[in-house]
């Protein structure tokens, strides 16, 4: 009997002391947190990808609440919908923004870009980039070790074993920008998705002079400037031996694609060209032949 | 050019050291103790060792293939064989096959592969298996057959081991220490205990081999043995009737096996020399505390497992001596 | 016998070309001079297309204090100043010279006679070294004159000559010591005078007993110079390891430099180049290059004009074997794998090593088994396994705390790893990233 009594009393005492300590601690060390932080965090995707530029979703929520304005803040994963929800919670105005997607600007597949050496180091693009120019003669193109694949939290980018290049799954890509940051050669660009998901872009980042780029890869941009002349909207510029199509100016006419002698300009999600459309464009195909 | 030149960062040469070379090196170092166990326990030792090794390899293969669905098999790297031998060495030679198989499953399945396989396990797999068995089957795990019954396996006659005698002395049986075999007998392995732990001589041969082949460094075994020796020596000086001599402590039970083969397990021991010594001293201390003051006669397995848990902490605080750290004029 | 105290490994020595005397290599058809052959600012071309140059004509000026001038090793006409694919495949600016004859600048003393007497002041010696474009010949290519001008507050106490040649295969320094011992010793005396010290040590590993014996004999007539035989252990040729081995002092972690413990370390090839620059007015435009490899027909040591393409050296050593897997500029532990063999010999090219396909392939990387062999091997007392993991998780702050910038990139960890992990690949990446972060922080 004694034993039981002692046990009950001692355990009870321990419990009581612990409870008091916990109570005091919870009062003394309480940190005030804006309840809206939790509300905002709730509507966020909780992927903690860092695409917004803040440390995780909680960080982004805190920043939104603190800032008092949603200017310049964007959750690329949740997109406009999520930002509208956050705006409603905080009583603020969400900025209009365009949906974006990651675009791989290199088309140097095994076929287009002959391999001249064999890289045998760590499977990391960053290491490969520091070791050598890569397996091909192109010192700017994709290295193919898949840092972008490893960085993607949404399973939206995968290596195509046939081409040795990464491919973006548009349905899954949230444009968080992790792959663009992971790529040591800045091949991946976060571009607006475009009307009906249609995009035209230069799929090459080779800054070498024309003849050098020409030798390295079948589909390299040689900065010939034909696309610049062809474009009626001044959307294309050539700098550092590389053409760039400004997505905000591009009207998706695809004329540049037809004049590019190296097929470095790529258009996606367009319906296939009808053969009869090509007949009025004879001047373009003529130049192509002349090249 | 016909061949594409290979490009990688330096170094361009390698020592040709491999995981296999190290694992099989340890296995080779265990051979003297294995032979002694066959000599001492005959068919019992053979059955226990074979069962344990085969079961470990089988579970490694089956789990990696069917549960983890790994493409390449890891059974050839020698780590499963090593776990099997070490587990067997920690079991009595009359243990039924089904208990050994359970031990192997726990060792490989829970001790190793749940954490991600070789290199990721926080606890020594063989010891996880052994301690699981020790707690689940205390009777079978603590009855050790007498040596020399070569043809007998399950029905071999058992008797109290030197460790049990030591424990009895601590508990108040003043005459029990006098029944201990001589130190020389315990050194070469004429006393009895688990399959692989009886012969200190055979285990020391293994240690010599591993040091020669640079598979391990001296830090862990020496620090464990020294701590046990010093600590038990002090206790022996305090009361020689209750506490056995340090020599007897070192040569009996699992201290040799533990210090040389179990505590030095690559994955679960600290990385720096300083850390290794801290780890070794702590294991030696805990072992003696359990032996002299705890409920179990033997404390090596528990001590090693406890310190395994502290290994990450030791790694964080015991850094190797950096170049130029101290010498500054 | 002395050696450094922490870590180290013992790669197979494979000094195949140790007994081949130095041969003079013929001239190439076209010589190429990259403008960035050294640590520091790239040189600035001071010739233009069509200019006629002689052997020893300056073709590029130093681009700053930590920089070095470049001299033509051939005579002929400047063909163009264009980009060339360097050892790693990236394009770098370079001067191309079409070779025509072999006409030397008149100021160069081409006689073989040994000149011992020198009555120049220390500053004048440094000036001459600077004007001859001498850089560290061991491979790092740090401009020599910079090392001889200690920063304010530090004082040199001794000159240590690195004649260790701890890289397997390479024998260029070994042959140089056997064939030009007196010149080297005069060079060392000049370096001692320039650094204003009384004491010079020449550290030689004891796998070169003939060189130790010869140098010891000759050194008796040079006051203050002592030959220190060292126990063979890689990376003894590392600057910090050598100082530890020879005078028993350890250079503290960066930003401390060898001069912090009073040592000026120079390569033995540099000592020879200093002799030629000061006594013979000969700027740095040729060097000794080992061409070796197990499958190479005739492992050799060549006296080569800089700018010569490596393919010419390989041809002279018996041609590129059919089973070649890797061509390495330098030694197997720290050398650079080349993407093509048209890369020219530069100031820092100590050797060309050809490995067959089987030797060249790395083993498959497997999970770390935490064997701690890399920790034991690291000569800097670092934890390579940890640094490589931290790098792969982008844990830069922690990596900095774990002294990643102390890594000397010797490769001992990766050499010894039983799991064939690309430890140094990752650590290099981490080290350069952390150094970038540190620089950005101090710039703020």
Distance between the termini of chain B: 56 Å
Share in helix of chain A: 25-40%
Contiguous low-pLDDT stretches of chain B (5 residues minimum) are: none
User: Roughly what fraction of the amino acids of chain A lie in strands?
Assistant: 5-15%
Structure report:
The complex is a heterotrimer of chains A (291), B (329) and C (444). Chain A has 291 residues and is of the alpha+beta class. Chain A has helices spanning 2-28, 35-43, 56-67, 79-90, 125-131, 147-151, 178-182, 210-216, 226-230, 255-259, 282-290; strands at 100-104, 117-119, 157-160, 165-168, 188-192, 199-202, 236-239, 242-245, 265-268. With 329 residues, chain B is mainly alpha-helical. Chain B has a two-stranded antiparallel sheet with strand order 2-3. Chain C has helices spanning 122-131, 144-147, 172-179, 181-194, 209-219, 239-247, 268-279, 310-316, 357-360, 373-377, 384-392, 396-401, 412-416, 423-443, and strands at 22-24, 30-34, 44-45, 52-53, 58-61, 70-71, 76-85, 91-99, 158-162, 199-205, 225-230, 263-267, 286-292, 300-305, 324-329, 336-337, 351-356. The longest helix of chain C has 21 residues, at 423-443. In chain C, helix 3 runs parallel beside helix 5 (209-219) and helix 4 (181-194) packs across helix 7. Chain C is an alpha/beta fold and 444 residues long. Chain C starts with 21 loop residues before the first strand and ends with a helix. In chain C, 28% of the residues lie in helices and 20% in strands.
